[in-house]
Amino acid sequence: MANSLQDVVRVALQVLDTHGLEFASMRRVAAALDVQPSALYHHVPNKQTLLALMADEILARGRRTDPNGPWDEQVSALCHEIRDAMLAVRDGAEVVATASAFGLGAGEPEQRLIRMLSDFEHDVAVTGARTIMLFVLGHASARQMHEQASATGAITYDPSIGSPESFDLGLGLVLSGLRAALPVRV
Amino acid sequence: MANSLQDVVRVALQVLDTHGLEFASMRRVAAALDVQPSALYHHVPNKQTLLALMADEILARGRRTDPNGPWDEQVSALCHEIRDAMLAVRDGAEVVATASAFGLGAGEPEQRLIRMLSDFEHDVAVTGARTIMLFVLGHASARQMHEQASATGAITYDPSIGSPESFDLGLGLVLSGLRAALPVRV
DNA sequence: ACCTGAACACCGTTCAAGT
DNA sequence: ACCTGAACACCGTTCAAGT
Asked: Where is the signal peptide (chains A, B) (predicted)?
């Protein structure tokens, strides 16, 4: 039976999760779909686009409805949501990071962050959202890259490198910086 | 005449700067050295290692002696030094970012940052240095990736994306967060 | 609409052999 | 010590042709 774009993205994510980004080739995805490599180009114009769709799917799978409560708790919850979603797939953070350079994947979460920071001056909200996003993405990415590098034996594993504790500490630092920029309530 | 490892790294950086990371292949570096591809493996065990050496060289070229003055001015100066060094070479930030996952390249600057934060509790200094490093690296990386993506025509160019202004604002946010954690002087 | 089969222009890496 | 030449096992992408 014929495959849909959805099938392609889903199977591509499976290949990514089991083999890692390095071996997530178009040819492997095609093989996993029991199809010739050229068949993929009916669904997608190139690999870059497929990676972007995968990034969207990774983030979509973790999506929860925004909580209410103080802005900092909202932001913290969203950051954990994004982090968990990326860590749920092997090399997921790396895929989201590269896709976000094309304005895809990470753009939507950043908009949600900006909305949560609407009590701030607009410039501060925009800068804050981007800084938080860079931290969340970079932190998860560093963790997964270190995992992969140490699995290959290229380096000795350091459990502190992408730990939840260091994530909360770093995020706390940025949130604390934001609090200092909070305009006084009228 | 025979090439040294230094020559290889230097020419590899030239290839990177003129063609971009995507086309910085071992074969192209070999061609630029007027040598067979296999000859590179006399100097370097694999491409990953060559990239790590390139990352070190990128950062070394921007290295200045640490200034004295208040800690936040020292940190800010160092961050600009690292950023400028990475931006001086096409896709330089991306190369440093991937190399840093292997404990190379970005490790030394991070140690310098920790030293500048020695007035803080050790945990705070370590977290602060890493968070700052993630920001500087991620910010420069996002800028260069966006430049490359928009040059390919895949996306419309947005000059605000890796601007010096947004860099200073984001860095200021993190520094402000650190100030809140500063222990009171005795 | 979805796919096959064959081809093109590339990769990184290995290895025996040369000087 | 530094390099050649040939090979191996891969890539992403294109394109005519099939159903």
From this structure: none
Statement to judge: residues B122 and B57 lie in one domain: yes
The string of pLDDT tens digits covering residues A21-60 is: 999 999 999 999 999 999 999 999 999 999 999 999 999 9
Per the structure, the count of domains in chain A is: 2
In the predicted model, is pLDDT for residue A121 greater than 70?
yes
Can you tell me which residue has its alpha carbon closest to the C1' of nucleotide D5?
B36
CATH number, position A159: 1.10.357.10
For residue A113, what are the domain limits?
Answer: 48-181
Taking the Cβ of residue B100 and every Cβ of chain A, the question of whether any pair is shorter than 8 Å is answered with yes
Which amino acid is it at B26?
M
Residues A164 and A111 in one domain: yes
A15 and A105, same structural domain?
no
Name which of A113, A130, A156 to mutate to probe chain B: the one with the most chain B Cβ atoms within 10 A of its Cβ: A130
Name the amino acid, one letter, at B151: A
pLDDT at A186 over 60: no
Please tell me whether residues B14 and B30 are part of one structural domain. yes
* Nearest by Cα to B90 from B167, B46, B11, B145: B145
CB proximity A183 to B under 8 Å: no
